[in-house]
Design a protein that fits this description.
Four copies of one chain form a homotetramer. By secondary structure, chain A is α/β, with parallel strands linked by helices. The two termini of chain A are 35 Å apart. Chains A, B, C, D: Pathway: Amino-acid biosynthesis; L-arginine biosynthesis; N(2)-acetyl-L-ornithine from L-glutamate: step 3/4.
Chain lengths: 342, 342, 342, 342
Amino acid sequence: MIRAGIVGGTGYTGVELLRILVLHPQVEVSVVTSRADAGLRVDQLYPSLRGYCDVKFTLPELDNLKDCDVVFFATPNGTAMLMAESLLALGIKVIDLSADFRIKDRQEWEKWYGMQHACPDLIAEAVYGLPEVNREQIKPARLIACPGCYPTAVQLGFLPLLEAGVIDGSQLIADVKSGVSGAGRKAEISSLMSETGESFKAYAVGGHRHLPEITQGLQNVAKQAVGLTFVPHLTPMIRGIHATLYARLNRKLDLQSLFEERYSEERFVDVLPNGIHVDTRNVRGSNRCQIAVNQPQGGDTVVILSVIDNLVKGASGQAVQNMNLVFGLDECQGLETVALYP
Amino acid sequence: MIRAGIVGGTGYTGVELLRILVLHPQVEVSVVTSRADAGLRVDQLYPSLRGYCDVKFTLPELDNLKDCDVVFFATPNGTAMLMAESLLALGIKVIDLSADFRIKDRQEWEKWYGMQHACPDLIAEAVYGLPEVNREQIKPARLIACPGCYPTAVQLGFLPLLEAGVIDGSQLIADVKSGVSGAGRKAEISSLMSETGESFKAYAVGGHRHLPEITQGLQNVAKQAVGLTFVPHLTPMIRGIHATLYARLNRKLDLQSLFEERYSEERFVDVLPNGIHVDTRNVRGSNRCQIAVNQPQGGDTVVILSVIDNLVKGASGQAVQNMNLVFGLDECQGLETVALYP
Amino acid sequence: MIRAGIVGGTGYTGVELLRILVLHPQVEVSVVTSRADAGLRVDQLYPSLRGYCDVKFTLPELDNLKDCDVVFFATPNGTAMLMAESLLALGIKVIDLSADFRIKDRQEWEKWYGMQHACPDLIAEAVYGLPEVNREQIKPARLIACPGCYPTAVQLGFLPLLEAGVIDGSQLIADVKSGVSGAGRKAEISSLMSETGESFKAYAVGGHRHLPEITQGLQNVAKQAVGLTFVPHLTPMIRGIHATLYARLNRKLDLQSLFEERYSEERFVDVLPNGIHVDTRNVRGSNRCQIAVNQPQGGDTVVILSVIDNLVKGASGQAVQNMNLVFGLDECQGLETVALYP
Amino acid sequence: MIRAGIVGGTGYTGVELLRILVLHPQVEVSVVTSRADAGLRVDQLYPSLRGYCDVKFTLPELDNLKDCDVVFFATPNGTAMLMAESLLALGIKVIDLSADFRIKDRQEWEKWYGMQHACPDLIAEAVYGLPEVNREQIKPARLIACPGCYPTAVQLGFLPLLEAGVIDGSQLIADVKSGVSGAGRKAEISSLMSETGESFKAYAVGGHRHLPEITQGLQNVAKQAVGLTFVPHLTPMIRGIHATLYARLNRKLDLQSLFEERYSEERFVDVLPNGIHVDTRNVRGSNRCQIAVNQPQGGDTVVILSVIDNLVKGASGQAVQNMNLVFGLDECQGLETVALYP
């Protein structure tokens, strides 16, 4: 059994890791930390876990984590970079769900995240945990930087087009809609149901932190300079991301086949048959990305629709997928679930 | 024109007062206070008010309010009792939407609200602002204690039965469901959309602050000792309260007529025809209470359904109704709106 | 492997059976019927099942079902009673999620369901599939009548009190709130999001079909005549039932212990510790009933809160639990899931 | 008083017309038709109107409408074109909320709407009722074709840019999100809360009927050939449209001033100050379009955000605005409301 620790177990990605890991046949969740709730039983805060988890929250200290085989960071940005080095030194694998190690350009990271990087030496070593791109690098990695939720949905949608070089990469548009759980479990007026329910809005149109992460990922596979306009929106639901992606084709081709072939071996990316639209409910609670390919009126604008559950394939599920790869397990273990519909 | 001031203009009852008052033909909103946002234009925080309100938030100080004819307190409990005396001394009418002056028994109030009452001398003078019961006392009053949202829905449903003495008042049950705006515009995890959306729960089953207020109101009109079990619930919507009220009849009678006659002159209480159920959407945004009377299987249990919009008839609309009475205006002025359906 | 057939696979209980059964280690879903969609692949209608279910809808004819070991009816009322006899004659177990065999009194059934019973001979044999009451009768049964959603939540809440004889059974009140999926996947204006979203209402206050079912179940365990007022409500969410149950105690006792002991061996009924409220989100997608016991102000009114997911413990999950019992499997197989929170 | 008739009074745009008109000081609603509900009191179907509307539904026959000054068609497409000619012949103004007279190219209309046009002679005369573009033509008109909901939000967002000729009109993208009331009050599975709640999806990506209407409107003001990619989405809320519009600038300019000046005299178009995002809740229930102008990272892609309430500025409110113009009233009469927030 793999002994797993979760640092930051009270947020939504933390409790989602618990939901997945307590049923994972190869994992034992041995440590869950919370500075605020140390001493409290985990299932007292989260009654959905009663009968599945009998540990108590502990303080996020090295000594509490030292017997783990793997430690997940489900923390705000800026925490993993303080502890990663010590954990790695103990031979513990680190899977970071926050943004600390996602951006290779340290200055770019510091600009967007507004703090100094506390552990720049590990940035280069960290492997960006998008298995559909980096599977072979992930397997031997010690430190995984799990992609953000928006970046996962957007990259999986654009990748086949950029890898094939069939679009103008300089004028990409990603109009993306997220459920409110993406804002996390934080006491903020802007996330109240009275503020977000029955309403729809864009936010951070001037610039969102996921922009440099997406651009980096797209640039890595593109044969040209990538230019992206990324507009995130908040939609009145809890889980789900729907990316609507626009690009200009530079040649005629069978788009449907391009996508189906690119993802034919991927068990968590599902290209829908021509003419079927994606819907976030069809991936709710599952680790799947579903994609639909459209070419309205047969013109030269391609419209890709890509949906994920932001807490699963966009965070905790993808983290477990990475863990499975790192520990040589079947990539799907613990992740075989059918979306909760309706 | 009546010059109105609003103390605590950034919460939901405050902005709802603004929504109503900026269109009231006899009122000019001259002061809106906010400790946190003083100096900011009101319509910058609330873009829905652009073009209707050009004042800025000011500090909640007596000097800023001294030219008002009426001051509304849309504040947390414990604020109105600190300022009411000074305002009254200036000849300003005070309409308090908080709970400070609702309970006549000071010790009871202090027990439930967990603080010492700062202005006990005014408790007796304050008139409980439920016009359907106290209209004549409201008209000459200087200080109005507006009823809470739950108390309004529950009292209007039970009153005809208790006044007529046709039920056993010792075993009343009020199972009441509220939208989440009742929790206010406060940064609390429990009010996040991720916590309250797509879920339903009871809360404060052991005892809610509105219990003594409701009991006091019912006892005032009852011919017997009142015993009430009150269970509030949170329902995943923003506005609306639905009270389901249960009592045992002690005689046979025409319940429908009893209710229709009791409220025949009331312009904000609407008894639906027999067989039609109430629905919170049918009062959303309006100052109305709609009531349906049921006697399942013709048995001796009466089931009253009573709905209001918690922010209108349950708070700001009722406050304006009181203001109209106090200033000798048509009781409906500024309150003639049709619910927003769908 | 148990070969399972589902009659009526396009409704919400049908697709929920699929969600559970495609991951059940002992079951192969070999037949899914739909009169309207025969010939269509199941996963074309329900893309959430892509990769998990490769059968097509077939017509609901005996010939298509004859190789099944068990057939589930996820049909409107009135269908199972037409086919049950033929299936049983072939040695096939029948698990009916509709109401056809729930009520032992045929005339009562015909009154509430407005049709003649087509198969009265089997009514007596059918076992009411509430394992927490009838486990031993379920195991050898050929025909299971699965409880309705409201009846499951209400009975599990009242049972310990009635079995112990500690309440006045003649004045029970069940104020129950359901998500909209309980109305099924039917094209009806009353179930549109524009009609049910952001609104709350009671319905069928005069009499709901689940009333005789609940009363029959409670009467079976009570030592006295049972009288119940049952008021169902529609709450603006998709899944979940919250029952708020009221009764008068006839003696002093430790209610918390009563409930904990009654359900100590039940793996799908979870009595929360004193002081914790239930919340439908904590059972969403799981086969669990969570119960909280309250005695407001230490009075003689007991308030029981009981939540289930109406599509799981209230329908398809409970059906699989029954199947597990009938086939001698671990009662929990295929049902070990953690609720989807948030 | 203007005597108004509403043909098709049971749908959402019909009941929204009623909500507005019953409070309009210059209008008396004298006829409301419904084929299905003729004979029923309007307020029996819509209890929100109790006390405001005492007419009954009548059959949609000319004889019932002949005393009206104006008739609104809140009908499905294909009805207004059958009755308009007769009504006009009686001197009655016709305001059509359906699509019958919106498209000037008859063949184009017939292609998208899948029927033959029954009244082609009136197509040329009909005035497209977008006052911000056609105010002077609307005033003397006999027949108004009210714009669709999507077309209103999209056109108001793109117009200043196209009129000024500052963008490349051949590569416009409109990514638009609508609440579910846009689908109307029709018994369809796809509009159930269980299908649309807690989920987000695009639809009709291959081609939506509003595409030719939007293109026609944009082309009328553009100095170049217009090419538009229009992707509508369904968002889990009842009211509101949020258009996110993308275009490439062909020169540097002060976009904020361009928009503020273009709409400085428009009372129902509100350009927000730089840096404030729009939110559909801020126009809910009001006849306003709020617009925000963005130029991410100072690049050459302009992002316009435009929100309306689809049932008000996107349908019934705009219809009343047109009526006010046609009858020489203040354009704002009956439309002075503040959005319902929260």
